[in-house]
Amino acid sequence: MADTMTRPGDTRLPWRTGGALVSGSVLQPLNSSMIALAIVSLTADFGASDLMPWVIAAMYIATAVAAPVSGRLGALLGPRRVYLAGLGLILAGSALGLLAPSLAWVVVSRVIVGLGTATQYPNAVALVRRYARRRHVRTGGILGLLAIGAQVTVAFGPTLGGLLVGLLGWQAVMWINVPVVVASALLVGVFVDRDDPVTVTRRELPPAFDLPGIGLFLGWVVSLMMFLLSAVDEPQWWLLGVFVVCAVLFVQRERHTASPFLDVSALVRNRALFATLIRTLLTYVAFYAVYFGFPQWMQAARGLSPAQAGLMMFPLAAIGVVCSLVATRTCRIAGPRRVLVGGTAAMIAGGVIIAFAAGSRVPALLVLVAVVAGIPSGFNNIGNQTVVDRATPDGDVGTAMGLYRTTQFIGANFAAVALDVLVGPDATDAGFERLGWFTAALGVLLLAVTVAARSLRPEHPI
Fold this sequence. Notes:
single chain, mainly alpha, Growth Hormone, Chain: A, about 80% helix, globular, MFS_trans_sf
């Protein structure tokens, strides 16, 4: 039975409802963080293949393009229905992966899993917003809980993945989804209110869904991400041309259609949301550059084993969790501006520390890098999510949160290119120092953008 009653005096969304929504939202970081540990096992079973990088990349691309689309679907068909349908896709993709006769089938299964995991976060936020509106309650720290769930999963995902792959082989990264999906479906079925009846008819659905607009959106996002992936080794410049054409056509289409998938004109007018997406892109270029580059440098330049490098990354995730808790409370009391300024100041400091740590043999500096780098991952993530939530109307919040996720993944791809240019495959001290100054420079730019944002000032409430 869904949680349809609110006790007298309740002013917050029940934690059992929030916990039910978090249970499915952890599937995306779980699948992303565990798969790297399965590559060796996959190679042993299927042999070396050019498809191997796509085992990781396919899910990122699928999730990036599907996140805002699933938010739009949730607005039309009901966020609870789409959330549960996404769980079904994850289960189907995992089953296909377990039965895969070749690596190509594993890649296809990862695409299906990526499409499924894309539905949870945007529709979880939409369900939280709907509950708060219906019950006239505050959402409390549920956005923070969603972020913390993801960060805890990222922190322990590699350890769990290594253990399970060692016991069960690469199939473990598929098996792990089964109990989580079943548990999440049961929790959502019991503790989350049912959707209202669908009011859109089958005839009205295609124009309301804006299939041409979504097709062009997929075109420019996929071509951009594939170009960035290719830029690490051999840039495929024709993909950049596809990106430009699809992006121009997408903007023209969305500006002139009656029911746009993404109202570009409204997005530009909504300065708070537009500026937040820019800040999110800059934040995640810097974050992922450090997140990917730091363990690479520790192994190549400092001689740490993969296990030791992974252990050194744990403070980053742990501090991110603590900062998410602090940021959630600070946003509720003082607004997101202080959180974003504090997180960005830590990003600048982290970049400077990285630049000096590159030439130092002091072990404590490595720990300090991980600690300081974890602050923006908590502060900026919560701060930006809070702005998106407050700046977006109820009917568009799922699409907006999906677009927020897309921006994160695009930032990760830009970070991969930056790493290749600045650090290179050898990950020398000089390359790591360049990465530090690059991170600090991005932080200065991000701080300027944050301080200049009128929508974040107290006299301009979001």
